[in-house]
């Protein structure tokens, strides 16, 4: 009995250590997104270079988390909800790694964009969208640590706002492209940036869904309304015709 | 001794069953990509609708694989390379699920595009790119089943060709946009389609890297040359100026 208790607490200690790594990783990803958006807005190539460089630390943390989780499974043999938790941590780390990649991609594109004529208001809008999505990501991770299914459900709903920001930006960029062909290249980059930020929102949602799964034992069933810019493009195309 | 042998073969049997599910999932994803590209090329809205509908089966398979893997870990308590294998299966299933999403997205956009004037040669080029990437995905999964690190390394190298196809398409679409603003909306959709097919190639590479990890015990260290259209856009922008 005593030995079993010992095993349980060893698992909890290990889990806490690996969760601390996830939160650290989350902090790095949030900073990378904000810095990349700032680099775009202020045309700061040095900051962009730093974001690209720092993505290596995010990748290394993911690797470490995956290995610690595998070690934890092998060593502690968790079952039922403990096993679910470890598998969730692995998925969340994978989600964060992708978000880090998007921040790195934003930083790369910001350098290319800094060589072109700016598009009115675009960088500011992108930066606002990045801030919103970082808050979403932060809340998803907080919901995970607190095992707060309600907060997680709220993150899922709020991702819809990010989708709407994306659709609005999409139309805005398209208008710039239609108005002046010289804007096309820059707007293509901005489109991809907006799309990638929208995807970070999707990853925040995926993390929130893991929380709901952990707390309630099943994935949320209702599919969220997703249009991914396709409707925005259709609307723009109607306007164009 | 006998009991230990029994446990080992039970693990192998379970692993084989779950690997069969992965191969089935791979087959569905490959068919979805090819069908979606065909729907785009032949403006077949019915086929596109079927691809979108069938994505549910792919998602359900992923869920089943993740659950079987968790069950396998809890029940058999694999360690060392057996545990690595199960974790790889989970990652590969997640990769395939994303590829299924991209096929579904292609099918959605193909319906929108079928309402617009076609862009010369675009759908055919997209279809060729989809075929290449499906072969890549198939080879990555075959390399996994055969635990063939050499074949996996070959997949990694060949993904570069898909990247080059993407960059070429990128320039082509940009040219159409610059030539005639009425092409912009359709070309934006085509751009996103090409980008998503290129991402399927990235997932094939991720699967190949899992194979190398399983066989050699470590991830390949050399970073593959990745430009993701950023260089293509820069080149196009220079041409434009």
From TrEMBL, chains A, B:
Claim: Ribonucleoprotein is one of the keywords in the record: no
Name of this chain's protein: Phosphate-specific transport system accessory protein PhoU
Keyword field contains Glycosyltransferase: no
Domain of life of the source: Bacteria
Region (Disordered): 222-241
Organism whose genome encodes this protein: Gemmobacter lanyuensis
A GO cellular component entry from the record: cytoplasm
Family as reported in the entry's similarity comment: Belongs to the PhoU family.
């Amino acid at each position: 009995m005593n030995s079993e208790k010992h095993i349980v607490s060893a698992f909890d200690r290990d889990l806490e250590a690996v969760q601390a790594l996830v939160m650290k990783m989350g902090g790095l990803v949030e900073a990378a997104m904000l810095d990349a958006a700032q680099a775009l807005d202020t045309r700061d190539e040095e900051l962009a270079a730093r974001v690209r460089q720092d993505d290596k630390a995010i990748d290394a943390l993911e690797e470490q988390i995956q290995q610690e989780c595998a070690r934890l499974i092998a060593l502690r043999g968790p079952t039922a909800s403990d096993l679910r938790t470890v598998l969730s941590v692995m998925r969340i780390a994978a989600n964060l790694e992708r978000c880090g990649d998007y921040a790195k991609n934003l930083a790369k594109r910001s350098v290319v964009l800094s060589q072109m004529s700016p598009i009115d208001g675009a960088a500011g809008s992108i930066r606002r969208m990045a801030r919103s999505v970082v808050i979403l990501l932060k809340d998803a991770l907080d919901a995970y640590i607190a095992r707060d299914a309600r907060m997680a459900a709220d993150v899922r709903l709020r991702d819809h706002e990010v989708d709407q920001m994306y659709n609005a930006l999409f139309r805005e960029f398209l208008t710039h492209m239609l108005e002046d062909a010289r804007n096309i290249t820059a707007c293509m980059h901005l489109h991809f940036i907006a799309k990638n930020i929208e995807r970070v929102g999707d990853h925040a949602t995926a993390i929130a869904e893991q929380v709901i799964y952990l707390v309630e034992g099943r994935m949320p069933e209702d599919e969220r309304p997703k249009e991914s810019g396709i409707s925005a493009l259709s609307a723009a195309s109607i306007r164009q015709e």
